[in-house]
Every structure is written in C-alpha cells, then in structure tokens.
Amino acid sequence: MLSTIARRSTLLQATTSLRPAHHKPTFQPRFTPTTKTATMSSAPGEQFEVRQTSTSEDYTPDPSKSIKLSPARQALIDDIIALYSCEPTIKRVERYTPDCVYDDQFVYANDRYKMAGQWFALPKLFKASVNERYEIIKNERDLIQFKNEQSWTFKIIPKTATINALVSLSLDPDTAESDFIQVKYHKDQANDKDYSHEGVGFSFKKWQADNVMKNMDSEEVAYFEKDKGAAKEPVKKYGSGTGEAPKADH
Known about the structure:
Blueprint lengths: L1 H12 L14 E2 L8 H4 L8 E2 L19 H14 L5 H4 L2 E8 L4 E2 L2 H14 E15 L2 E12 L5 E12 L11 E7 L9 H13 L7 H5 L27
Parallel strand pairs: 3-8
Antiparallel strand pairs: 1-2, 3-4, 5-6, 6-7, 7-8
C-alpha cells in the first residue's frame, strides 16, 4: 500500500501544471452500441473501451463551453465528480456495472469490487480532493466525455497537485436512457497518448487494483465482493500509447 501511495504521489506531482483551454480531442470507440439490447449490455466492460490520442496535452476545461445535460445525465456526472472528490458511497459506486473497467495512469480495475476498493481508498490517501471545474465536450447516447480539473492534497506530503484530464464514460446501453445511468468503461487520460496496457507500468497498476480491496477493512468495499466474479475478458494490448488510437488533426 505504501508503494502505491509513493508512486501515486510522485506521478501526480509530476503533472501539476495547468494548461490553456482550446483543445477538443476526438475519439473512436472500439465498441459502438447503437441499440438498446440485453445482448450488448451483457458484454463485459472491456468491449466498451474508447481509444483516442490527441495533438495536444491540453485538457484544461472551459465550463462556459460545457454541453448541457439532461437531469439524469447531470446526476451521473455529479456522482462521478463526488467520487473524484473523496466522497464515495455505495450508491455512487453502483453507478458502475459489476463488470465495469476503470482505466487511468495508476489503476486498471476490471470489476466493481476492485473499483470500490479504489474509490474508498482515496480518502485514506488524500486529505482533500477538490473539483476546480469541468467541461462536458461530448454527449452521445452511449458516451459522455468531459475535461476535468481536480486538485489533490496529500495526507503524507503537505502538497496540493492540480491535474487536468480527459474522462470518457462509456455507458451501459440498457441504462443509457434510464433515470439511473451506469458506466461500463471509465477512462481517465492525463496526456495526449492512450494506454498500451503493456509493460512494467501496466503490471503495477493492475497488481495494485487487484489487491487494494483485499487489504481494506471497509463494510462498503465488502458489499461489492459479490461482483468479483463478474464477466471479464483478457486485457486488450496495443503495443504503444498510439495503437488503435486515432489522433485528432487540429
């Protein structure tokens, strides 16, 4: 756990600079649901990954340009922002399907039990996490994408790091138009490249996601242990951060 904290702290501190707002990346989903069917919804989270690269690392949000969402979709975003802000609850973690995937610089969690371990661990790692601003840049039936700016204050090190990232939420087709929308694949990218899912770095982020929840004394995390047997597929590997990830031409 200490090694996880140290790596998270080092990597977060390395990305503290803010960037000017003008960039809107494009994306190309590997899986593009078009109809609301049980067959699609039963597919595991790995099939809903969005792959993308960008001509810029500029993910600074401009709230004045944010796309307006329906009440149900805004409620989803409010819950996701609350999770980023160290305010996890069982109901908020239930925004994810049991077979979801969470994929960022530090974590690859491929079920909701592992995901719960990550969200409920954040308040133990950070003294505070504040959402500075966000901008919804894509609102499609099965995908919501937003630029996010979050400030993290560490418990062990008296330092605050501010990170800008591109967040892609691939939605469960069966709940995309419901009052309680759930997420199949949550990707958080802090630079212009996507994730290769290979090498030592990936091995670490999968290892820590596979083990954090096992070492937590938390009734909330234990509640999601029922999801550890959720359907999974082998991790998709891409060779590099640009593999199968088209780049926007700006």
